[in-house]
Amino acid sequence: MLELKKIFKWVNNGNNRVFLLKDINLTVKEGEFISIMGPSGSGKSTLLNVIGMLDEFDEGEYEFLYEPVHKLKEKQRTGLYKRYIGFVFQAYHLIDELTVYENIETPLIYQDVKASERKAMVADMLDRFNIVGKKDLFPSQLSGGQQQLVGIARALISKPKLLLADEPTGNLNSKQGEEIMNLFSELNKEGVTIIQVTHSEKNASYGSKIINLLDGRIEL
Amino acid sequence: MKFDLVTQFLNLSNGVKEETWWNANWVTYFLLHDKGSLPQLQQQVNDYMKTTAVKEEARLDGSNYLRYNLEPLTKVHLYSSLAGFEPNGSIRYIYMFLIIALLILVIACANYTNLATAQSAGRSGEIGMRKVMGASKRQVFMQFIGESTIITFIAATLAFLLSVLMIPYFNNITGRQFTAAVLMQPVPVISLLVFCVLVSFFAGLYPALVLSGTQVMGVLKKGFTFTGGNNMLRKSLIVAQFGISIFLIIYTVVIMQQMHYMQTKHLGYDKDHIVVLPISGNMLRDFQNLKDAIAAVPGVEGVTASYETPEFVEWGDGVSTTDEKGQHNVSLNAMPVDLDFTKTMKMQLTAGRDFQESDFAMMDTSNNNTNFHQPFIINETLARKIGWAPQEAIGKTLDKGVTGPVVGVVKDFNFSSLHDPIGPLVIFLGRDYSRTFMVRIDGNDMKKTLGQLEMMWKQRVPGRPFSYHFLDDDYNKLYQAEQRSSALFGIASGLAIILACLGLFGLAAFTTVQRTKEIGIRRVLGASLGNVTLLISGNFLRLVGIAILIAAPLAWWAANTWLQDFAFRIPVQSYVFIITALVTLLIAFCTVGFHSLKAALSNPVKSLRTE
């Protein structure tokens, strides 16, 4: 599904070049559930952002669904990730001013889906996550677990092939965390490719493969 | 009072002292023993004018009577419709400028309130700490009021210095001779101080209240956030600011359009390329030769003479005539002119003819004027007023003290200010009244023509300097007050929109900072640059839109009210509103768009970083 070849990313700090990612080679096949682990500052989130095309890299090649990402223009890249990638964040990153319904609907608006279709799709999603009753609430009226559920619903609304999750359970208690992780393995079984960043061995064990990062390098 | 010469009324020739009721030529001044007796005096004058004896003398029937209106001299300059010793000002303009100054002040205060409240988000830590250290609500409140006071007083000092420096420019626009001393008097200084106190209080009040009332722990933990009500205030302030700006812009545009209209309106004669030369009494003796000499100068197309120039006729008079429908008395303006008047001025005759050489024969002064006949040209309004069709009027007899036939009817032309409708006018042949030559030149080489006129003048009229002016300049002088007002309005509305945009700029900067996270999320969810820019600008533009909806009808009403003052006026055009709205939206969009674009372009990864 995607392939990273010799990816480097750095920042220049005075005369020193600090590497955030160093010689990353990674192939992800469709249907995989990968966990990225490593200590703080090892580049986990950076790698996830590079895969999600939110962040650029300085060197190397990245192929996503046979498209050479490193050669694409900003607009094409946006088009690509809008269609195929969903994001889940540790801090949920819901929009405070919008209701649950509107939050889930937002990505569809940016993909120019027609209003009637949007309505049906959001209704399906609310149904599936059992949050129909909460659709008119604002994020601040929900518990953390529920907010993350909305976050995941939002990520899945545009039927992405790849789900990127940056410590999705980091702000949740263990019971809520477990529910989210069960949901992830279920989604994975339905065919969604998942890459998650996590600190927890237990969460990592839900995945089919673990990648360890240290100082921007993949530890084998 | 400015004058060249003062003389007693009694020194004037007997003709002008004739006692008739209709010739309203003179302003009469009374000195009353008691100020309060004015209404009583007015009543007595009216009663006297209603007595049968007076009405008979004035040849009036039925319940008609003449009114002589009394006005206190102190009110003439600013309130009267008739001129006093000097050209009148209007109290309305003074009020209007006062209101505009206040409106601009409101915009500036709104900016301060808005930005101070917005900026306070960044100062929440400071306030929190002050409260932790034991500052009372009152102390925090006073701190913020204090800050606004200091800023206001610094601004007032700068404004005062700026005013002193700007006086020459102000004089330039208004045509006055103010000096800095005007500003140093107690009234301006004290009112400035009072305003400073008021402004610092009102502008500082809201931020001070909000900030002093914040909960310590909330602020220290989460940072300062705005509640819904607060947004309401901020939104209303933006609407108010832009409402004021839009109002002023539309109003100014309408005023300027009317100015343009007045300058370019076809008056019924051609005022361009007319040189006006003064005639003194002893020049009348050699009148015909002088006139021929002027006409002989190359470049001169025509010469005529008259008592007053046609752009502003003040000679008041009365005529009467009797036809099958009875007697008609009309109070009107009159113009004694020389031959070739309508031809030189390029006026149109709807019936009859211009005066001609043979008409002088009618004016037979032999035999103690027993056979004297005065030929008249009347304007269409006078003909209509009497009830004559233009063709019918020719040959009818008019009585204006002297009687004579109507030889022509001239198409109505503006002989007074455009504030007033065209009234009845009688033009009569009266070479001996002439005070000015009006010379139409072809304008091909004005300098040369004027030079040759001057040469001729110096030979023929050695005693008088060749001092000429142009008729169109005289005309423009009539509307100098309006010209100046419109210039000031232009400056004021420019200032208003700049201030409003400054405020919007600051607020947009602040809002985008506040919404950085949201913008980041939206970018990650696939929002394009356009989506984000529209999102941020859209909110502000909606407010500007509301402002337009509120301000446009008000401006329409105000502009129409102002235009009512002019008998000759432009209609208020809807495209003025549309263009103003579009331009304002565009300016607002550019102001906000800068920040929106900046926010949209920033890397969402940065704004969403949590660790």
How does this structure look, described?
- The complex is a heterodimer of chains A (220) and B (611).
- With 220 residues, chain A is an alpha/beta fold.
- The mean pLDDT of chain A is 91.
- Chain A has one domain: 3-Layer(aba) Sandwich (Rossmann fold).
- In chain A, 35% of the residues lie in helices and 28% in strands.
- Chain B is α+β, with helices and mostly antiparallel strands and 611 residues long.
- In chain B, 56% of the residues lie in helices and 11% in strands.
- In chain B, strands 3, 4, 5, 6, 7, 8 and 9 form a seven-stranded mixed β-sheet that branches. A four-stranded antiparallel β-sheet of chain B has the order 2-10-1-11.
- In chain B, β3 and β4 form a beta hairpin.
- The chains are: A alpha/beta (220), B alpha+beta (611).
- At the A-B interface, α2 and α3 of A face α18 and α21 of B.
* H/E topology pattern of chain A: EEEHEEHEHHHEHEHEE
- Averaged pLDDT of chain B, please? 84
Helical region count of chain A? Answer: 7
Portion of residues within helices of chain A: 25-40%
Strand content of chain B: 5-15%
Strand residues, percent of chain A = 25-35%
Q: Taking Cα atoms only, what radius of gyration of chain A do you get, to the nearest Å?
A: 18 Å
Shape of chain B: elongated
Instruction: Output the number of helix runs of chain B.
Output: 21
Q: What's the N-to-C terminus distance of chain B?
A: 81 Å
Number of domains of chain A: 1
**How much helicity do the residues of chain B have?**
55-70%
The major pleated sheet of chain A works out as: 6 strands, mixed
What is the CATH topology classification name of chain A? Answer: Rossmann fold
CATH level-4 homologous superfamily of chain A: P-loop containing nucleotide triphosphate hydrolases
Largest interface comes to:
A-B, 25 and 18 residues
Q: Which whole number gives the mean pLDDT of chain A?
A: 91
